[in-house]
Amino acid sequence: MYADRFGTLKGISRVQTGAMTTCPECGAGLTLHDSIEVGEIVDCSTCGTELEVVEENPPVLDLAPELDEDWGE
């Protein structure tokens, strides 16, 4: 690591922060943002399945419940 003539640090690799977990549908690895909350819905970037956060630490995902349409009732 070194600083260029403008004082910008060089040679630093960016590390992705966030919790790692897997999709229960396809098994793909997912990185969740740091402020994930129980009940939050996330999409799997591999298979597109909607997933619900059921535990925060460690993060556990389950298939999001299907919501019935109320059609304005």
What are the salient characteristics of this protein?
two-stranded antiparallel ribbon; elongated; single chain; mainly beta; Rubrerythrin, domain 2; 73 residues; 34% strand; 3-stranded antiparallel sheet
Average pLDDT taken over every residue: 82
Give the proportion of residues in helices.
under 10%
What CATH calls the topology of the domain at 16-63 is Rubrerythrin, domain 2
What is the CATH C-level name of the domain at 16-63? Mainly Beta
What's the helix and strand layout?
Layout: E1 2-3, E2 9-10, E3 19-22, E4 29-32, E5 41-43, E6 50-55, E7 60-63
Antiparallel strand pairs: 1-2, 3-4, 5-6, 6-7
If you had to describe this structure to a student in words, what would you say it looks like?
- The protein has strands at 2-3, 9-10, 19-22, 29-32, 41-43, 50-55, 60-63.
- It has 73 residues and is mostly beta strands.
- The protein has a domain at 16-63: Rubrerythrin, domain 2, CATH 2.20.28.
- A three-stranded antiparallel β-sheet has the order 5-6-7, with no helix packed on it. A two-stranded antiparallel ribbon has the order 1-2. Strands 3-4 form a two-stranded antiparallel sheet.
- The N and C termini lie far apart (62 Å).
- Mean pLDDT is 82; it is low at 12-16.
